[in-house]
Design goal:
Layout: E1 4-7, E2 14-18, E3 37-43, E4 51-52, E5 56-61, E6 66-70, E7 80-90, E8 93-105
Length: 107
């Protein structure tokens, strides 16, 4: 998968993603609210820890695992190389449903 490129300060565009199960099939989000989705950024360096972002996730098509994420300004304030992670909470268990290299560039 190619890295996702994002411009520092770009809060007017939304990020559209399709979440998949480990076997590559769409991850059903039926019955879940956007609050069940947590988006995190982890610096692209050894032993780094992810930090939850402040924006909001919306489920756009539950059957096909499609979501959108609206970044908050603080989410994308520091240019650099990160990993974007999307976790989904199902009945008390969290599932890593998406991971990609994420580059924040200067405006």
């Amino acid at each position: 998968m190619a890295a996702i490129q994002w411009t520092r300060g770009n809060t007017y565009d939304t990020l559209a993603l399709t979440l998949q199960s480990q076997d590559g099939t769409p991850l059903s989000l039926a019955g879940l609210a956007g609050s069940a989705i947590t988006v995190l950024l982890r610096p692209n360096m050894p032993l780094s820890l992810p930090a939850a972002l402040a924006g909001s996730a919306t489920i756009t098509n539950a059957a096909t695992g499609q979501i959108s994420y609206q970044f908050a300004a603080s989410d994308i304030a520091v240019p650099g190389s990160y990993y974007l992670e999307v976790h989904v909470a199902f009945s008390g268990a969290s599932w890593l449903a998406f991971e990609s290299l994420f580059i924040i560039s200067q405006a």
